[in-house]
Design a protein that fits this description.
Number of strands: 9
Number of domains: 2
CATH topology of the largest domain: Rossmann fold
CATH architecture of the largest domain: 3-Layer(aba) Sandwich
Structural class: alpha/beta
Number of helices: 12
Strand order of the largest sheet: 3-2-1-4-5-6
Shape: globular
CATH superfamily of the largest domain: NAD(P)-binding Rossmann-like Domain
Helix content: 40-55%
Length: 313
C-alpha cells in the first residue's frame, strides 16, 4: 500500500508497449524512474520528464514498480534475480506486472514479494503501442482487491478501462484466453479474406463490407490496413503469439478444457514460425493463407482507416 497521493513510480521495460505506456504516465505529470536493458531505447523518455536509471536496483526505493517484459525468464530476472528489484535492501510497496508470462513464474514472484512485504498485482493489457497512444488500451488485473482499488487511479492514466478479475493469477488466464482468441480471429479473418479475393473480390471491398456489418469489430477494422496494404510492420509477432498459445493450451489441458479450434490455429502459427516469419506482424497469417491457396497477394495501396483516429495522446 502506498499511503501516498503522489507515489514514486519505477518502470522496467520500454519495448514497443512499455515505452508507450510509461509515456502516458509522464504526460499525466507523474514522477517515473525508468530502466531498460538497452538504455538507449529508454533515453528519449527523459525529454518528457523520466529519470533514466542504469540499474534495476535504483527502482527498489519506489512506491510502485511496473514491469513490462517479454517472457517468464525476463520477469524472474528483473524481479527476483541477482540485481532484481526484490533482491535489494529495500523493496517497493507494490509491484504491478503487465507482462504475459506463465502462472508458475508469476507465483514465484508473488512468493518472493510476500517475503519482502510487497503487494503484487498481475495486470496484463490488451492492445499495442498505437492503441496505447490512442487512449484505448484495456487492462485485466488480479491480486489483492484493496491494492487494486488504491492504484486504480494511476492505472487509468495508462488505460481506458481496468477490470478486476479476482485474486491470484486469474488475470493471466484471462489474457491468455484473449490472445488465443486474437490468433483464432486473425486466422479466420485471413481465411475468409483470401476466399473472397480468390473469387475476385478486392480485399478492401470485402473488409469494408465486413467492418460495416454486425460481424465487424474494433479489431477487424484495426487490422484492415495491414490486410489491404500488406503492411507487416510488427505490432505483435508470431513468436509472441505462439508463446501465448503454448501457455494457454497448457492451462486448458490442466483444466481439462478441449480447445479444438485453438489447437488447429496453434499449428498454423507454428507453421508460420517454422517458415521463418518471426520478425513480421502476426497479420502475416494472411500471406500464409494466401500461399496455401496458391495465391501471391499484392498491396492495394489504399488509405484505409484503422478506427483509432481521434484518440487521446
Amino acid at each position: 500500500m502506498t499511503n501516498n497521493l503522489n507515489p514514486t513510480i519505477g518502470w522496467i521495460g520500454t519495448g514497443r508497449m512499455g515505452y508507450a505506456m510509461v509515456s502516458r504516465l509522464l504526460n499525466a505529470g507523474l514522477k517515473v524512474s525508468v530502466y531498460n536493458r538497452t538504455r538507449a531505447k529508454a533515453e528519449p523518455l527523459a525529454a518528457y520528464g523520466a529519470e533514466i536509471v542504469g540499474t534495476i536496483s535504483e527502482l527498489a526505493k519506489c512506491d510502485i514498480v511496473f514491469s513490462m517484459v517479454s517472457d517468464s525468464a525476463d520477469l524472474l530476472q528483473v524481479i527476483t534475480g541477482d540485481g532484481g528489484v526484490l533482491s535489494q535492501k529495500v523493496a517497493p510497496k507494490v509491484i504491478i506486472d503487465c507482462s504475459t508470462v506463465s502462472a508458475e513464474a508469476s507465483q514465484e514472484v508473488r512468493m518472493a514479494a510476500a517475503v519482502r512485504g510487497t503487494k503484487y498485482l498481475v495486470a496484463p493489457v490488451s492492445g499495442n503501442g498505437k492503441v496505447v497512444k490512442a487512449g484505448k488500451l484495456t487492462m485485466i488485473v488480479s491480486g489483492p482487491r484493496e491494492v487494486f482499488d488504491e492504484v486504480e487511479p494511476i492505472l487509468h492514466h495508462i488505460v481506458k478501462a481496468a477490470t478486476y478479475a479476482g485474486e491470484g493469477d486469474l488475470a493471466r488466464l484471462v489474457k491468455l484466453a484473449h490472445n488465443i482468441f486474437l490468433g483464432v480471429v486473425t486466422q479466420s479473418l485471413a481465411e475468409i479474406t483470401v476466399f473472397a479475393e480468390k473469387a475476385g473480390v478486392p480485399r478492401s471491398a470485402f473488409l469494408e463490407f465486413l467492418n460495416d456489418s454486425v460481424m465487424g469489430s474494433v479489431f477487424t477494422r484495426y487490422k484492415s490496413p495491414a490486410f489491404v496494404n500488406l503492411d507487416m510492420t510488427p505490432t505483435f509477432t508470431p513468436i509472441l503469439l505462439r508463446k501465448d498459445f503454448d501457455l494457454g493450451l497448457a492451462a486448458a489441458r490442466d483444466l481439462e478444457v478441449p480447445m479444438p479450434v485453438a489447437s488447429a490455429t496453434h499449428q498454423i502459427v507454428q507453421q508460420t514460425v517454422g517458415r521463418g516469419q518471426v520478425d513480421m506482424d502476426f497479420a502475416v497469417l494472411l500471406l500464409e493463407q494466401a500461399a496455401a491457396s496458391g495465391m501471391t497477394l499484392k498491396s492495394e495501396d489504399l488509405k484505409i482507416s484503422d478506427g483509432l483516429e481521434g484518440g487521446s495522446q
